Amino acid sequence: MQAHNRLTLRIFFFLWVIVSVSVSVSVSAELPQPYKQLISKYNFKKDSYSFVVKNLTAPEKKAIIYNGSKNFNPASLTKIITSFIALDELGPNYKWKSDFYYTGQLKDDTLQGDLIFVGRGDASFSIDNLESLIREIQKKGLKKIEGNLILDKSYFGQIPNIIDFDDDPMRAYNVLPNAISIQSNTLNFKFTPQDNNIKIDVKPELNYLKIKNNLRLSNKNCVSWKQSLDYQKANDSLDDTIIFQGYFSKKCSNKEIDLSVTDNSRYFFEAFKYLWTHNGGSFSGGYWVNDKQQLDGKLLASHLSRPLGVLIRDMNKYSLNLMSRNLMLTVMEEDLKGQVTEDDVNRFVLNWLGSHDISTNNIFVENGAGLSRKTFINVDSLLEIMEKIYEHPYMPEMLSSFSILNEDGTLETKMPFSKAKKNGHFKTGSLKNVSAIAGYLVDKNKNKKILIFLMNDKEANKSYNFQKDLINLAFESI
Q1: How confident is the prediction for the chain on average, in pLDDT?
Q2: Regarding predicted confidence, which is higher, 414 or 238?
């Protein structure tokens, strides 16, 4: 009996080895020799990454695919899906609209009622935009408001107010989606060494924000200055107080960081109150938030954003999370006409892909930005999406939103000595243990190609040279 069990175990082990070898061989057996040599050059785990190179100019050529069906977290490559759906559904000329309404009566220069600001997801709305609207209203003769400011956020459904992605909730990439946004709900902090101190300037200046500067000067190099900086909000302050501590190098010149320090609604209210009075108006009311359904009122002034085809260039080239999360919700709201939330994103994306004859196997999208540990896709599916993009009437708008290799965006300084520089439009993606790049490349023979690389591993942040060699190989090869 024991001998029989031992024999069974040996047979099982033998079969397992055969299956394991066959699987590992299957993902690379069809690769051209230069790509096999590239894989051998680097000591990454063979199942920790995948890639594809597809010749679009010569579609009869078989795609070069490694680990094509294996799922990976794509990080910000998710924005490719968001951009494509948005352009197809809304069109490149779509503009976000923001409005000021009023209730009650206008009498002479006084509003005997409330002022209502209705936001519809414009993540590009700025302090300057708000001031322009205020000046437009005041030019009509309105100077004094006796009521309150109502912030109408009912365009989207209930948005979580707790950031649980990582342990750095004040960073700009962590800002949550919101129907009303101003200055991306961030403040810009600028640090300048002066004598034996560090000067901290903030824009815009908000009267209720206090800065406690406990920074100390150091002689360290300036490469990792953000890692030497510590910041936190004081919990025992009636006003918003941010405390800076840690070290700042004497070798640093002016350095800047955008942080989300204050509550979104209060930020908007305080900015409005300051700008209203600064431009000659009178306002002593408070504010409250409406998130149920749009309130009735009479229109005072409207603001239109820049066109979507322009804004997605900023969104993709600089990987703006708030804009892409708001954009996905905007597309859903315009299509479904309900108070949508990010809980609805995956269902909407899968339905949209399916209705456009794109395979939805093994795709999960948590939000429009890719700021997620749950989102996953494989290069086979992403290749299919990017082939659809290339065939689409809005293909030029999509490509122009990607970073140009060694030219701009997240790739501005990458691969300066490569022959492929300026010949590729790529979207990059990175999270802790995630590194990814995808886009379109024109090779040395003027063939147009799709290239995708995904890696999920503790070594992912060390894969830059691998990605660089992959791009160079795709550029040089037939």
Answers
A1: 91
A2: 414
φ/ψ of 248, rounded to 5, equals: -135, 130
Tokens 């560090």 correspond to what residue? 198
In this model, does residue 11 exceed pLDDT 60? no
List all residues 6 or more positions away from 204 whose beta carbon is below 8 Å from its beta carbon: 127, 183, 187, 271
Helix (H) or strand (E) holding 424: strand 424-431
Quote the tokens at residue 123. 């993540």
For residue 27, what are the CA distances in angstroms to 31, 277, 380, 436, 445? 8, 66, 13, 19, 27
Q: What beta strand segments (E) does 180-310 contain?
A: 187-194, 197-203, 209-218, 229-233, 240-249, 255-259, 282-283, 287-290, 298-304
Query: What is the DSSP secondary-structure string of 359-393?
Result: --TT-B-SSSS---SS-BB-HHHHHHHHHHHHHST
* DSSP string across 440-473: EEE-TTS-EEEEEEEEESTTGGG-HHHHHHHHHH
H or E element in which residue 434 lies: strand 434-442
pLDDT at 433 over 90: yes
pLDDT of 3 above 90: no
The three-state secondary structure class of 174 is helix
Whether residue 207 is predicted with pLDDT greater than 80 in this model: the reply is yes
Strands 105-107 and 240-249: unpaired
Residue indicated by tokens 């951009």:
83
CA neighbor of 474 nearest in space, from 459, 456, 458, 452 = 452
| Other Cβ atoms within 10 Å of 89 Cβ, number | 14
Q: 412 to each of 143, 377, 407, 415, 416, how far by Cα in Å?
A: 47, 27, 5, 9, 9
Structural domains of the chain in order of their starting residue, each with its CATH number = 25-92+309-476 (3.40.710.10), 97-162+264-305 (3.50.80.20), 187-259 (no CATH)
Sign of the four-CA dihedral 70, 72, 76, 78: positive
* CA atoms of 14 and 21, how far apart (whole Å): 11
What pLDDT was estimated at residue 14? 42
User: Does the pLDDT value for residue 24 go beyond 60?
Assistant: no
H/E segment holding residue 102: strand 97-102
